[in-house]
Amino acid sequence: MRSPLGALFDDAQYIMDVSGAGNNFAQGYYFYGPQYHERFMAGIHNNLEKCDSLQGFFLTHSLGGGTGSGVGSYILHLLADEFPKITRFSTCVYPSDDGDVITAPYNTMLATRELIQSADCVFPLNNSSLFSFNQLENPPKTDAANAQPLSAMERKSKSRGFEGVNNIAARMLCHLTSSSRFHGEMNVDINEIYTNLVPFPRMHFLMTALNVRHPATSQTQKHLRTDHSRPALQRAFADILGARGQLSGGNSIHSDRPTTMLSSAFLARGKVALSDLVHCVEGAQKNMNFPEWNQDACKIGMCRTASPGEEMGVMGMYNSSAFANILGRDLSNFQRLFRKKAMLHHYTEYVEEEVVREAEQEVVELVADYQAIENGRYPVTEVTTSVPADFPLYPPF
User: Fold this and answer.
1) Among 245-249, 351-355, 380-384, which range has the highest average pLDDT?
2) Distance between CA 356 and CA 372 in Å, rounded?
3) % the chain with pLDDT above 90
4) Is the CB of residue 200 less than 8 Å from the CB of residue 275?
């Protein structure tokens, strides 16, 4: 509201209360959600009436606290109930391991369950990865060469860090939707991302990566001309395939631990030649491990309009079994508290303990699905139709 972008938003759409949900998912979901249900619906319908061609819903929220996880999940569930045929996208921020919200593991598990059940496509971001990425683009002036990751308390004390991190998340979303807003030779509609990158309904968590930004100054423009576009694009691909460009908490795509890619996508913006993009994508595919039933699981897109402040940029999206490792860390943090029933009484004021257990089981099953893919098996919780092994998929006429 008070930021330079505050004027872009309609004041009538703001919904505020004296206090938040007190870092408690259950309070946000089961108390504040129903309390503001009618106002949520009024705001949604008010925006829908302004749409000529509704493409989908985008929800942005954090999972560590109570309002983002609880109220955010309530709105997501509301959208699933009221508009089941409209695609629902969620961009959510998972808390870092050194965060200062003690109840974050509970909030994360309960919210993840709702993401599994009510979202069609999820773009998870990780706080630690966002701050590390921000340090690469905006290193401290004192000692940029030896910059170290900031702790949670240090991040909270540096206001500039929050602005930079928010800009990175916004840039990812702008990159994702660029084809819907600008012209390009190979535009990729946002619903194409969902169609091509989500082979199984529950496994719809897409890890994202961006190239580290190089401002389009007169000095850098010399290296970004057409005859030097391929080296610049290769450097961008090195970022999005390496650990430095990951925004979801994952490691390098070429890490020592093998992971399986269910699907992937590469979206380029700005001065990028199609031949150069295809060359880089083919090189990336050689180092990716795809399941035998989906060897060509790679989507590419191009948009002519670059992000403000750079000549070209690339975004990578991966539906990868590596997400099981990320979610497994959050699951372990949750189980350490839940096994001792620590902090549980704050949640049972609003919901039965069984709901918490069901959320845990839902996440355990999702982790098992991703691990099954990594081990060359089929997801254990997906419903399949038995087909004889000798059944001809394409019978002759």
Assistant:
1) 351-355
2) 24
3) 59
4) no
According to DSSP, the β-strands at 298-303 and 88-94 are unpaired
Q: How far is CA 358 from each of CA 66, 107, 274, 351, 363, rounded to the nearest angstrom?
A: 19, 14, 47, 12, 9
- Comparing 17 with 354, which gets the higher pLDDT? 354
- Closest to 110 (Cα-Cα) out of 346, 375, 381: 346
Half-sphere exposure of 72 (CA within 13 A, CB side): 30
- Residues composing the chain: 397
Name residues whose C-beta falls within 8 Å of residue 8's C-beta, 6 or more positions apart in sequence.
Answer: none
Give the separation between CA 178 and CA 186, rounded to whole angstroms: 11
How far apart CA 63 and CA 72 sit, in angstroms, is 9
Whole-angstrom distance, CA of residue 152 vs CA of residue 131: 10
Q: Six-digit token pair at 286?
A: 């050689």
Contact 129, 160 (CB under 8 A): no
DSSP-derived secondary structure letter, 288: -
What count of other Cβ atoms lies within 10 Å of the Cβ of residue 326?
22
Q: Which of these, 258, 259, 261, 267, lies nearest to 240 by C-alpha position?
A: 267
pLDDT in tens, 349-362: 999 999 999 999 99
Is residue 185 within 8 Å of residue 268, measured between CB atoms?
no
How far lies 334's CA from each of 107, 109, 343, in Å? 9, 7, 11
b/e map of 283-298 (b: 16 or more CB within 10 Å)?
ebbeebebbeeeeebb
pLDDT in tens, 299-340: 999 998 988 878 889 999 999 999 999 999 999 999 999 999
The region of weakest confidence among 59-63, 87-91, 119-123, 164-168 is 164-168
